[in-house]
Amino acid sequence: MKAVVYEGPFNVQVEEVEDPRIEAPTDALVRVTSTCICGSDLHMYEGRTKAEPGIVFGHENQGIVEEVGSAVVTVRSGDRVNLPFNIGCGFCNNCERGYTGFCLTVNPGFAGGAYGYVNMGPYKGGQAEHLRVPFADFNCLQLPEGEEHEADFAMLSDIFPTGYHGAAIAEVNPGETVAVFGAGPVGIMAAYSCMLRGASVVYVVDRVPERLSKAEEIGCVPIDFSRGDAVDQIREMRGGDGVMKGIDAVGYQAQSGQDGEEQPNIVLEELIRVVNPTGKIGIPGLYVPSDPGAGDPHARAGMLPISFGRLFEKGLSLHTGQCNVKRYNRYLRDLIVAGRARPSLIVSNELPLDAAPDAYEKFDRRVEGYTKVVLHPVAA
Ligand SMILES: NC(=O)c1ccc[n+]([C@@H]2O[C@H](COP(=O)([O-])OP(=O)(O)OC[C@H]3O[C@@H](n4cnc5c(N)ncnc54)[C@H](O)[C@@H]3O)[C@@H](O)[C@H]2O)c1
Ligand SMILES: [Zn+2]
Ligand SMILES: [Zn+2]
After folding, report:
1. Which tens digits make up the pLDDT trace of 65-100?
2. Do 189 and 146 share a structural domain?
3. Alpha-carbon span 194 to 164, nearest angstrom
4. Exposed/middle/buried for residue 226 (C-beta within 10 Å: 0-12, 13-18, 19+)
5. CATH number assigned to the domain comprising residue 45
6. DSSP one-letter code for 255
7. 353 with 192: CB under 8 angstroms?
């Protein structure tokens, strides 16, 4: 089959690889109709992780079940399913408590597994014609038959639940004010989720005009951090006040507004400054325990200086971590079915698998018109 293979920094190719097969009786095989390129893939693409050449990328997968193992009970050939990017077993101590992003079974020696991702286990990604899904009963989210909402449902593997996770771990409540840093797919979905949860005002900080317009389109207040300190801009608009909740949808590759250089702690610092005392900060943006590509020796070891004393003084809470997609995906699916949510608003391009190398290159440069790419390896 054809698949998107990582060859080395800034180089992916569509290549012929071995077809997946049923390896355990609990597996399913899925024909992939939609699979997205994610900001998380870019960390590997740019050589900013320990990813080795040969990885098949793709953790945001959806398709039609073509075969199931003998122990699969609820999933049948022909079912239309969306797959959470994290792979869970369903029965370990973490999965049982809803922390399916930290499964103890699927990636021995580590809490968490995923498709097509460095350190996340041996699972091939779904930027390919076919995908093997372990523990299929637990991991397949059933979708209505047909082709309706294909792009909306495709957002359920990662960015819609992850954005929602940002709002959930910041405990955004009706009427509250929120600052979301980052207007990439995750940031826009976080802002959108804050609106769904009834926030009164949501500020969205980024520097990419198209992304800021998207924030405005969904009813948020855009803040361009290349035009001046984001926190000062928000406080000025609020007569000096900060906000009650903050969300980091940027992560460790954050840039400074002054020169565009990377400054991995900048968003954390700005959140500590902008969130009012006793407020909460949700951090779905990715931070890594080692960053071989970082200039600074502390950052290389995953250590970032933050104003912890100020954080303590203000009584702020921080909540980090990978999204437990299964905690939210069923309910977010039902919002889509009910017409109450349309996460595909973030999708900019729907392309065949062969277009992946070009799409990676453009998405990585944040080229205008490349916000969220959905690849369609086979017809729906
Ligand atoms: N926790 C999870 O489970 C999970 C899942 C998916 C993605 N992520 C992470 O979420 C983050 C965002 O993902 P994405 O797909 O939206 O990525 P992205 O790279 O498309 O978006 C990041 C945005 O942040 C902006 N930005 C950079 N510096 C900034 C600053 N100082 N202030 C404000 N904005 C700034 C960039 O211009 C960009 O638009 C990534 O770190 C990704 O790895 C986490
Ligand atoms: Zn993703
Ligand atoms: Zn588990």
Report:
1. 999 999 999 999 999 999 999 999 999 999 999 999
2. no
3. 8
4. middle
5. 3.90.180.10
6. B
7. no
